Each structure stands twice: as C-alpha cells, then as structure tokens.
Amino acid sequence: MKAPELRALNDGQLEEQLGELHDEWRTLRFQEAVGQLTATARTREIRKTIARIHTIRTERVIEAQTRSYLAATGQTTA
C-alpha cells in the first residue's frame, strides 16, 4: 500500500494491517528458508509497507503531542 492509502486508515485499521503484514512476512521468510519462495519482490514490498505504517503512527503521535502542548499553553497552530 502507498502512504496516502495508509494515512486514510484509522489507528485500529493500521494495527490490523500491520499484523497481517507481519504474518505474511513470516510466511515468506519460512518459504525462503526451505527454498520455496517464488515472489522475492513481495518480501521487500512488505518490509517497506511495515516501515510506512510505523512512520505514520509516529507522525500521529507527534501531532497529538504538539496539539496537546499548544492547547495547554493556549497557542494556536499557524
């Protein structure tokens, strides 16, 4: 999935997607270990999508902390 598609998901959906990707990645690693892996590019795609999800989650945490700080100090965002 691309970043805009992932950003459209809520936190629960992101967690669900992350779990599914980890399961698929684990399956592909087992296939690679026994020599049955045919979709080698999929492994890289999954790793990148997992990284995108972690980045989006971090962005949301930072945004929430910034809003909380600004609300506590009585400032507004520009």
Q: Topology, pairings included?
A:
Elements lengths: L2 H5 L3 H23 L6 H34 L5
What does this structure look like?
By secondary structure, the chain is mainly α. It has a single domain, classed as Helix Hairpins (Orthogonal Bundle), CATH 1.10.287.310. 79% of the residues lie in helices and 0% in strands. The protein is built from three helices and no strands. The chain has helices at 3-7, 11-33, 40-73. Helix 2 runs antiparallel to helix 3 (40-73). The chain is rod-shaped and about 60 Å long. The two termini are 31 Å apart. The model has no long low-confidence stretch (mean pLDDT 94).
Strand content: under 5%
The span between the termini is 31 Å
> What is the correct CATH architecture?
Orthogonal Bundle
Number of helices: 3
Q: Largest beta sheet, briefly?
A: none
Q: Whole-number average pLDDT?
A: 94
**Helicity level, as a percent range?**
over 70%
Rg calculated over all Cα atoms = 17 Å
What is CATH's topology name?
Helix Hairpins
The run of helices and strands is HHH
The CATH class is Mainly Alpha
How many strand segments? 0
Structural class call reads: mainly alpha
Low-confidence spans? none
How many structural domains?
1
Rough shape?
A: rod-shaped
Main traits of this protein?
78 residues; mainly alpha
What's the quick description here?
This protein has 78 residues and is mainly α. It has three helices and no strands.
